Amino acid sequence: MTSIEEIASGETTLIDQLLADQQSLTAVATFSQQHTDTNEPAQSRYYKKLIPLAQPRPGEQYSFQVDLAACTGCKSCVTACNSLNGLDPDEAWRDTSLLIGGNNDNNNSLRQVVTSACHHCAEPTCASGCPVLAYEKDPVTGIVRHLDDQCIGCQYCILTCAYDVPKYNSRLGIVRKCDLCQSRLAEGEAPACVQACPNEAIKIKIIKTDDLPFKGAILPGMAASAHSRPSTTYLGSDDLPTDTNPADLHQLTPGHNHLPLVCMLTLTQASVGLFLFQFFFAQFSQEAIKPALNHWLSLSALIMGLSGVASSILHLGQPLKAWRAFLGLRHSWLSREIIAFGLWMPLATLYTLLTLFDLAPPALTRFIGALTVITGLLSITCSIMVYAVTPRPFWSLSRTAIRFTTTSLILGLASALTITTLHHQALPWLPTVLALALISKLIFELSTLLPAFTTSPWTPAQHSAQLQLHPLRRSLFTRFGLSAFALLLLTASSTPLSALLATTAIFSAELIARTLFFRAAVTSK
Amino acid sequence: MRLPTTISKLISKLRDPHGPLTEQLVRSPGGFGLGQLPKNQIPHATTTMTCGYCATGCGLNIHLDKQSRATGLTPATPYPVNLGMACPKGWQALSPLTASNRATQPLHRPQRSAPAQAIEWNAALKIFCDRFKKIQQQHGAESIAFLGTGQICSEELAYLGSLAKFGMGMIHGDGNTRQCMATAVAAYKQSFGFDAPPYTYQDFEESDVIILSGSNLCIAHPILWQRILRNPHSPEIIVIDPRKTETANAATQHFAIEAKSDLVLYYGLANLLIQNQWINNDFIQKHCSDFDTFAEHVAAFTPEITAQRTGISIESLRSLAKTIHQGKRVSFWWTMGINQGYEATRTAQAIINLALITGNIGRPGTGANSITGQCNAMGSRLFSNTTNLLGGHDFTNPEHRKKVAEQLDIPVERIPTQNSDPYDQILQGIEDGKIRGLWIIATNPAHSWINQKRLKSLLDKLDFLVVQDMYHDTHTARHADLILPAAAWGEKDGTFINSERRISVIKKVAQAPGQALADFHIFRLIAQAWGCGDLFKKWTSPEKVFQLLSKLTQNQPCDITGITDYQMLDQAGGIQWPYPQKSPSNEKHRRLFEDGRFHHSDKRAKLIFADPQPDPDPCDDSFPFKLNTGRGSSAQWHTQTRTCHSPALRKLHPSELLLELHPDDARQLGIHPNTPLRITSRQGKLTATAFITPNVSPGHVFLPMHHQHVNQLTHPSFDPHSHQPNYKSCAVKLEQI
């Protein structure tokens, strides 16, 4: 037993000595360096044959070529991309997914891991969507580059890319993406993923940009190639069983809710709707409007509009760079939306000031009012187009247009209802029109749930319906519950309190409906 | 429409192609033959060491900063194992070191269920010795035991086994290697006379027929699949597995046999080969024993019976036998699908027998080859002092005890004269009250052991449980009275032995957090505190212990007396055993039995066989499905205590537990894709999400083993020879929730 006591006295030194030893790093001193600093990377002996010797000629570009038969799903490409490019711990520009097929033929069943990165498209929709020209397609290599310092972190490219390629980095407030390791290729080195594939399944090929596909999809379950003409080719994609599908096809994972955008869209649409109401009410009303009512109508509209625009700023990772947003005017609907709202906002403010303080002749006020209404409608049109051009069937032009315009109408009328009722100048037709508008919108939204009850093969519409009915059912029920409550109030009572309650319920329900708009959309890959 | 050039110019002025954000991802030449690396991660020096996950034993080039601290890694290009490649775990090998739940101080729980309190090493050592000695005084020296690992260095394993048995008087100690390769050990020992996997990875490249049994190589050992792809002979790649795994998909032929019909299959194949005289009579006569009785035994496994039991058609069986016959260099490989079964040893030996009777051993591209699991499972086989006395010796052999005692300069009476109980018997000992104290090192049985509920209740039955681990909150550490904080791979020196018997060094390239110490150091402290420090006075550094161990191997089949020090191992890119003195110094690859001489006293290999046994957990009307478990993805390692700390790895596997189920069964039960299911076995139940795929056969279901609850289902049956648990065959029922 002596040793225990020894520990207390003499042996503490051994503990200290070992703790100190534990902290000393001696690998370099102990083991002589075997590496000589060569110009040629050691790994080039394996990857030399996997990359082109020459640069692309005019009309050509670099592209990834993945041999499906060689890829066995080890996924080293993803971790190598992360390590060799110095990305954040959870960041990688290569993703993997799984295809399964051959359900009816046990001997021919398929389990195929698919590795994918940026497809460096011929017509990159990330670039055409970007409001600040943060993307460029290199004229020589065809590499679609992202200019990290130009990015304002609006993440619109994430929506316009059909392949879920750009990734938002919340630490930096910008999007980043694969640059095909262009600095490596420029020096005759292979991109990280090519270097790291034990099976040599990923190669870099030079292809003619004109040959990139206008139709079909590069793999089952991937977005239609017509959208952006991706350059990646998957060898063996023609041999897949006919019933090949992504393994997660039926997985009901709701999308991001984009809260700032939900607020921005709902509030600006409410604002434009209310300005519209106020303008026509002021112009065409049979009876004289109390000035206070008129003030409240425009002031409320302005406050909602400004809050909406302000909340959109919260969506940006780099709000201080937002002034650049006009740069993409020529091709980006987001840029156009920002410019449209940028015109609308001062006009709406001016119009409200003119109304509030009676500063100008009525004709001028009317003119500014008309401009406010027109730019407001233009802005909503841009908002609609922002979503309609993304590769999401749930956000098709007609559907988005119905949603956004009816939101504008319903929230404009609902705001007007409360304000007019509070000012004892209730319009008898207003609750009925509002109720009818709301019912129409609810019927439209219910119709998006119908595909869930069909037994047809999977469609994006069916998936969106399932998302709403299963993981998002609480939001869905709340949205309809609140709306039903509002309808009840609208028909049963006309007191200021019930008007206020109904309006609050309708606003909340519309906000929830807009989160459903974002969360139930099926993202292509 | 073209904008005027002035406007274009203006716009281009408003774009920032450079700046601090762009700068973050700039790459520049990394030097050291590495090619371009992120500009802010250019190494000051590099050094090569072996990966600490699996037994493939890839060489990793560790990038070091000026203080010799690891800042990154790349797979080592010239290393003879991995040829510049690594799997995702290897690429991310450094990330588990910086996890926030690292054990940084000894922790003591005065009462079970009380929160653990941080204490000093002094106090921890005193508690360790006091509690264990008290138990020994009351219940005898045998009443404490240890459960080790295949994850720490050979020198540490040797220290642990020697300290526990020679120093502390324990008889019983085993390792988690019981769960992965005990079957291969038992099979090789009985068949060859020594636990000697005969191959070198180069054999993957030299075979013309490669037969993979119960091995999902593409996912479990991706780098070995890479070696198959480098085979220039367009080999026939045959996968025998009930599941159509990634490897089965990539193979040229797949035989989806019925669950646990493998032994019948190999006997049926042996019968076909013998009946057709597709065997190597010359090799059998010179180098094998018991052939006639073997031939007689397998004669009962006619093609008809074999086809009926395995679900493989007679034509397919014949064609498979013919492929083996026609192959000039046929190699047979197996992994956990074979090892983790209730008649696993005989099944592994049935594979060995196929190699022996066809003469496919001892030549390039041949062999009956077990691919091991953990990074140092092979080190544990030789040096853990558990099943074998150090250096592949035998506790029950007085000559061996004498040799070891002399070499180590310890009294021979210190060496137990009896074998240790295997893992399952140690647990039974706890149940029976014979084992009262347990010391668990670098393993996580509360997640990984079969029939998990019983295991957890046994841990709580102990009088005293010590867990030594790099994390303070593993599933097992949550049951511990005392937690000792260990340094991890990368924070200490030592050697590993990989599947192809390659001994290689690992190095200290990162500082352990807080007061965490290398397991080697912890054993040293315990030896001192226990009062047996004198026995280990020469055991002052891992390298000194390595030299002691290498002396012990003299004249053993695993003789490595020709290896002088770590420098030699480092410069050679690892050295395969045996490496006796005066071995040629320039061999990159070495295989065993080139002379056909095995390690039994008659120098012959034994053809060992037995009748197939009934399934201990058969399906019936209440439990109609056969559950198989196995590796889920290449990004997950065992109980995920390490891999869960890499966000890059977490992206690479499904976040929820998926049960693979055949479309026919799903249709019959009305189960829709991605819906929740309850899975119930005779042992327990859990919930998982339905993943409907024809990759499993009708009547079979599969769960990845990495989920913490999967072993609540598994059936506690064991191979009688290897005592390895039967993870691959458990009857379950499925219900929709």
Characterization of this structure:
The complex is a heterodimer of chains A (525) and B (737). Chain A is mainly alpha-helical and 525 residues long. In chain A, 49% of the residues lie in helices and 9% in strands. In chain A, strands 8-1-9 form a three-stranded mixed beta sheet, with no helix packed on it. In chain A, helix 9 crosses helix 13 (397-422), helix 13 packs antiparallel against helix 17 (496-519) and helix 16 runs antiparallel to helix 17. The longest helix of chain A is centred in the C-terminal third of the chain and has 27 residues, at 362-388. Chain A is elongated, with a radius of gyration of 30 Å. Among the domains of chain B are: 19-98, N-terminal domain of TfIIb; 198-370, Dimethylsulfoxide Reductase, domain 2, CATH 3.40.228.10; 625-736, Beta Barrel (Barwin-like endoglucanases). Chain B is built from 27 helices and 28 strands. In chain B, strands 7-6-18-17-16-8-9 form a seven-stranded mixed beta sheet, sandwiched between helices. Chain B has a six-stranded mixed beta barrel with strand order 23-27-24-26-25-28. The longest helix of chain B has 19 residues, at 121-139. The relative contact order of chain B is 0.15. The mean pLDDT of chain B is 95. The chains are: A mainly alpha (525), B alpha/beta (737). At the A-B interface, helix 1, helix 2, helix 3, helix 4 and strand 2 of A face helix 2, strand 2, strand 3, strand 5 and helix 4 of B.
Instruction: Identify the strand order in the major beta sheet of chain B.
Output: 7-6-18-17-16-8-9
Helix amount of chain B: 25-40%
Could you give a short account of the major beta sheet of chain A?
A: 3 strands, mixed
Biggest sheet: strand arrangement of chain A: 8-1-9
Head-to-tail CA distance between termini of chain A: 68 Å
> Count the strands of chain B?
28
Beta-strand percentage range of chain B: 15-25%
How would you sum up the global shape of chain B? globular
- Helicity range of chain A: 40-55%
